[in-house]
Amino acid sequence: MSDALVAIENLTVRFEGRPVVDRVNLSLHRGDIITIIGPNGAGKTTLIKSVLGIQAATSGRVTRAKNLIIGYVPQHLSLETTLPLSVKRFMLLSGRPLAECTSALARTGVGHLLNASVHHLSGGEQQRLLLARALARRPDLLVLDEPAQGVDINGQAALYDLIRQLRDELNCGVIMISHDLHLVMAATDKVICLNQHICCSGSPADISHDPAFIETFGQPVAESLAVYHHHHNHSHDLHGNVVGSEHSGAATGHEECHHDHH
Amino acid sequence: MTIIDAVLNDFFWRALIGGLGVALIAGPLGCFVVWRRMAYFGDTLAHSALLGIALSFLISVPLNLGVMITSVILAVALLLFSRNKTLATDTLLGILAHSALAIGLVALSFMPDVRIDLTGLLFGDLLAMDRNDLLWIYGGAIVILALLTLLWRGLLMSTIHEELARVEGVPVERLRLILMLMFALVIAVAMKMVGVLLITALLIIPAATARRLASTPEQMAALAVVFGFMAVTGGLSMSWHLDTPAGPSVVVTAFVTFMAVYSSRLPRVP
Question: Which residues of A43-81 are buried (b: 16+ CB within 10 A; e: fewer)?
Answer without folding.
Answer: bbbbbbbbbbebbebeebebebbeeebbbbbbbebebee
